[in-house]
Amino acid sequence: MKVLVPVKRVIDYNVKVRVKPDGSGVETQNVKMSMNPFDEISVEEAVRMKEAGVVDEVIAVSIGPQQAQETIRTALAMGADRGILVKTDDNLEPLAVAKCLKALADKEEPGMLIVGKQAIDDDSNQTGQMTAALLGWAQATFASVIKVDGDHAQVTREVDGGLETIKVKLPVVVTSDLRLNEPRYASLPNIMKAKKKPIDVTSPEELGVDPAPRLQVLNVAEPPKRAGGTKVEDVAQLVDKLMNEAKVI
Amino acid sequence: MSVLVLAELDEKGVVPQTRNALAAAVAIGGDIHLLIAGQNVEASAKAAAQYEGVSKVLTADDAAYATGLAENVAELVKSLATDYSHVLVGATSFGKNVMPRVAALLDVQQISEITAVNDADTFVRPIYAGNALATVKSKDAIKIITVRATGFDAVAETGGSASVEAVASTGDAGLSSFVGRELTKSERPELTQAGIIVSGGRGMGSGENFSLLEALADELGAAVGASRAAVDAGFVPNDYQVGQTGKVVAPELYIAVGISGAIQHLAGMKDSKVIVAINKDEEAPIFSVADYGLVGDLFKIIPELTAEITKRKS
Ligand SMILES: Cc1cc2nc3c(=O)[nH]c(=O)nc-3n(C[C@H](O)[C@H](O)[C@H](O)COP(=O)(O)OP(=O)(O)OC[C@H]3O[C@@H](n4cnc5c(N)ncnc54)[C@H](O)[C@@H]3O)c2cc1C
Ligand SMILES: Nc1ncnc2c1ncn2[C@@H]1O[C@H](COP(=O)(O)O)[C@@H](O)[C@H]1O
Fold this sequence. Notes:
The complex is a heterodimer of chains A (249) and B (314).
Chain A: E1 2-6, E2 9-11, E3 33-35, H1 37-51, E4 57-64, H2 68-78, E5 82-87, H3 94-108, E6 112-116, H4 127-135, E7 138-149, E8 152-159, E9 162-169, E10 172-176, H5 188-194, E11 199-202, E12 215-221, H6 235-245
Parallel strand pairs in A: 1-4, 1-6, 4-5, 5-11, 6-10, 7-10
Antiparallel strand pairs in A: 2-3, 7-8, 8-9
Chain B: E1 2-6, E2 9-10, E3 13-14, H1 17-28, E4 31-38, H2 42-48, E5 56-61, H3 70-81, E6 86-90, H4 93-105, E7 111-114, E8 116-119, E9 122-127, E10 132-138, E11 143-147, E12 163-166, E13 176-183, E14 196-200, H5 210-220, E15 223-226, H6 228-232, E16 253-257, H7 263-266, E17 274-279, E18 292-295, H8 298-313
The structure holds flavin-adenine dinucleotide (FAD) and adenosine monophosphate.
């Protein structure tokens, strides 16, 4: 079975994101970019499945500008076999990304797509579910355990009340949650090896996908700031404040 | 214009977050219908018919919907959606699972986790862990939306008198089946509904030590939450996680104990009315959002705090 893993290039999770003064978006110039953390978890899971003999080939896909190739290289260094760059300077929305992934899945015929639960830039939490819909496949979102068993998989999901287990037919789209695994760091020899692994380049247009956005971003603003920072001396003062000033207990 | 809201059910009936989604529907305007999909839903439908603002309750009673499987519920919503200008659901794990699937089936770009309605086409949603607020205008014919509960005060449970109408089931898609659930049992209020939350982080050191927070929570009638680090370390179950990729809460009072205040955690709690931080590191970023910060060792402070509150209350 092949596994397809989309990997998105996003602003690194440690960066303090700044809104541009003109309200057009956030500052991305000279900002550290990394693979979306959930996608690292997906790559790790796919590579572990390959190491366990359940999977034959792991393909990493990124949709984005030329630099997204670096994100694919990171996946290759972690153990993915080859990459596909869907090159575009447009900022594709989840629906358009899902259409690209569908087109690639039609071509590659993987048994599983492992998509991140959420991209930490747009915080949409949509792409995996949308891709499953477009393919007419089952979906298993927010996964913390994946067990493949013949033509089915059993997936444990992190839900609001705790954990839920479902059984899904393959092929399936799984989305990875934080507790699925702990991603490895790529070793230096594997980083060197990754440089020789192949990356195909295509485009949304070649895949028959219209990259035009459906949502018009009218404005991006900074959220209101909290006036925090006040300290209290001790427990007695804290309880006083909570009872008499804030009146919350 | 008419708006369809998809209800979420648990063993007690329609979950409260559905009423926050209804409040967003009220802000959009028009006729509001509530869809209840599940098995043996009469009692839930009867209760929901009283919700403020709802003009019609639609019921789809079928075993295929009993456990909320996305493939089955999405087909049902799709079969009804074209009669509506907007389709909404609460941004819970259920809503986030089902709604993007509906959106793709309808070729619509979903608008996730709105916190405000500007007009029928224009919505506000947080991005980058709440570091920015985007105002977006949808060009799609049907607006498909998930609603962040903290952005909208829930509509009242009574005051309405909607009609109830059954709709045809779309059946079982045959793609997935339910195996089981391990729900966290607790006598305390549910995190997203609680007026007071006591949350613990890595600083708690162990799962056993969370009993300190539970004693405080019980004294306050509070829920217990956690940071990702505390969940990853196995101190508490996954559904305790507050943050960008966990639950978003906005109680009257949030007490963060042994939590440093990473941006991903702040994303889930910084709209709380009053924030208290207890941390031994006076430089911890959590203090910058805290209304009342107390620097010191939590193992000394928490028992003292619990005792002080007990004393003052009696
Ligand atoms: C993709 C992604 C998603 C994430 N999503 C979330 C999320 O949804 N929610 C979330 O919370 N995090 C999330 N995180 C993790 C986040 O970045 C932080 O790592 C996490 O919030 C840190 O948890 P913490 O504050 O408990 O631990 P730490 O940062 O280790 O802080 C522990 C604190 O405890 C204090 N302390 C220790 N001992 C004591 C004591 N005896 N008395 C008093 N204070 C003490 C320390 O001074 C320190 O400030 C996410 C990260 C990523 C990459
Ligand atoms: N441009 C992209 N390139 C590759 N993968 C993407 C892209 N956008 C979204 N994804 C995938 O979809 C997941 C969820 O993204 P989102 O729906 O935007 O929150 C990410 O974790 C990625 O796995």
